[in-house]
Structures are given as C-alpha cells and as structure tokens.
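<instruction>
Derive structure tokens from the sequence
<data>
Labelled lines for chain and fold
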Amino acid sequence: MHRLLQGEKGRDKALESTRRTWFGRLASLFQRSWDDALRQEAEELLLGADVGVQATALLLDRLEARWRGEKQKELLHLLRQEMVALLQKVSPRGQLWGREGPWPRPAVVLVVGVNGAGKTTSIGKLAHLYTSEGMKVVLAAADTFRAAAIEQLRRWGEMVGADVVAQREGADPAAVVYDAISAAVARHADLVLVDTAGRLHTKAHLMEELRKVQRVVARRLPGAPHEVLLVLDATIGQNSIQQARVFTEAVGVTGVFLAKLDGGAKGGVAFAIVHEMGLPILFLGTGEGPEDLAFFDAERFVDALLRP
C-alpha cells in the first residue's frame, strides 16, 4: 500500500505544472456561466493542453448540452464529470489489467514504443511493483540493438530482484524472447516483461521484426502475449497519437503506459489517446525511481488536473 500511495503522490506532483497553467486556468474559467466566449476560451485552453481537436469538441458539446438541459449549473462540476466519463469509456483489451480472476502463469507482457519513450525504465518500475508483491518476474532483454540496453535492463533486474534473460548484443530478439519464456516456465515465474528495441514507427521492416517477436511468443506460449503495452512519452503531445495508431495496427496494443508526466507534459494527451484510439491508459510514470509509478485512475487523474 505504501508503494502505491507514493505513486499517487508522485502523479499529483508530476501534474502540478500543467495544473498551474492549462488546467488551472480552465478551472478558473468554469466559475463563470456558459456563453460563446467561454466556449471559445475553453477550446483554446483544451487544445493548448494537448487534449486534441476531437476530444475537445466532444467534451464541450456534451458540456453545453448538459448545461442547457439540466438544473445543475455548476460548470466545473459538469466538466469534471464529462472528463472522467471520457477517460472511463474504454474497456480493457488485454487479459491482465482490469480483468477479474487469476492471471495466466506465466503472464507475458510485450512492451513496445519508440526510441526514448522510456520503455526500459517503465519495465523496471513494473518489475519493482510485482516483485514487491512477492511475484517472481523475468525480464527479457530483447532490445539487442541499442547500445548498453542489455546492461541497463540487468541493472534494473538487480535493483528490483527480477531475473534477466539476455544474449549477446546483436542477437535475434525473437530468440531472446523464446529463451526468456522457456526460463520463466522452468522457474515457475509469474510474469515475463519483454523489453523490445525502440522501433521507429515509420520503419516498416522494424515493425515487421516486432511482429515476428509477437508470433514467436504466441508459438512458445499459446494465448500469449497477454498484454501489449505501449509506452508513450507524455511530453510529445499529439505526436503520440500517430505512434499509438501505427503500433496498434502492427501488434494490437492493449494498453498504454504514459511515461514522463514529470517532464513538463501537459496531461491532456490522455484524453486524446482514449478518445481517438480507444486504448485504455493503464499506468502513469511520474519520475525516474522504481516507485515512481501509479495505476491510472480516471477520477484521481482529473482531480489532480483541476484541483485549485
């Protein structure tokens, strides 16, 4: 419980900057009554906060309709409700997070994303979360191309108490993943987290290699991968939508780890990801440490953005 509470506090601190600017101004704006000028100002603020054109239009259309049709005239209260509803409208796509019942054993999570998004650090945080709960975790060092990637994952494994399965630099990533799953089965592990190379989503041959890794996982362990987790850098705003679209088309992303919220992110991209891609946001990265992680909770996320 202490670990998750620390992650929650980290989320609030990480969103402090965007709250002081974009969303804090939005909260102040919605102390007024609805009119065309308010809508125009709100639209500018939401777009500036990376909420995106489609999600902004939806939020404001629903808000205006409710304001005109209901006796409840507290605009900020209505705005909070609509923002939460938008973030909650997607159902879990994978077999682990957000589902009832026990996990498969071992559960396999394929972690994907572009260079610099923070995949390896996010994997380390997830490994820490589950080893701290007593689970046996195996990390698959399938990023065999980036300099020092294998060593970085090994450091995380040592730090959080997870086994690391790796081969030499330049090895076939699919072979590494095959070995990692085999080791997890033999060692009765609970969870396998696969660190893939940072794919440039515009490079077709690299995306095909990622598909190969996914196929090998499925052949080695029927039903796997149980989740395909896309790590997105929250500071890049609307560019993350194109990344999400390409990775989802290639390997069927089931959820998003929104990283680097502490790095000057505006926060609003969460709404665009959910609305435009229909992808659930599962985790938030709120710093560089192993405990700087929070489960995504729509109500707490919105409250952190709108808090005075």
About this structure: Confidence is low (pLDDT under 50) at residues 1-6. The first strand starts at residue 107 and ends at 112. Residues 53-69 form the longest helix (17 residues).
